[in-house]
Amino acid sequence: MSAAQKGLPRRPGLFVTFEGPEGAGKSTQIRLLAARLEAGGVAHLLTREPGGTLIGDRLRELVLDSRSRLEAMTEFLIYSASRAQLVHEVIRPALERGQVVVCDRYVDSSYAYQGHGRGLDTAQLRAVSEAATVGLLPQLTVLLDLDPALGLSRAARVNTPDRIEAAGLAFHGRVRQGFLALATAEPGRFLLLDAALQEDALAGRIWEAVQARLPTG
Ligand code: TMP
Question: What are the structural domains of the chain?
């Protein structure tokens, strides 16, 4: 169902998400994209999942804490709760103001980590996710693909592994395959990039894709 059919306001902004396994360099690429938006005078907002709101940041602490003992469904619902709050409090209002919203992770992370990784039922995940986001999907999703062994070792050099990072290589291998399957299923929305490429080359490809989708007028 389209936004218009659901009676939602027209969204003049642009919604861009970044996805990928651990240590793929999303933060660096988001920073480089923000610098280009800034230089071009494009109004934008950066946010992340889980988090981005007061309650979302508290949920982030809970879900990533290695002391939390969580069922897979509980884990998914915590991510979804954070997402529902972020969409309503931050993302939709910014899009309605005409801003470019750049979000570090979104529903595709739940499909990859909780669906492919934990093995939860895809149809259930989709139903809850659509309810949590009021059906709001990004116009562009940048997927930085990387071998999970490499990504995890990169991430471990920066921080002590959190609960998800510590879930093991087999889990992270399924997550990667999940992301690739999502990108194959929606080639119009996904920009699939090899995260092992040079930072500048990646930033250039991302900027081209964003520019091509920027609202005009
Ligand atoms: P980050 O490390 O990119 O900040 O993301 C937090 C962690 O949460 C990361 O390991 C991916 C995981 N995650 C999920 O498992 N499901 C989700 O829906 C989201 C948004 C993140």
Answer: 14-213 (3.40.50.300)
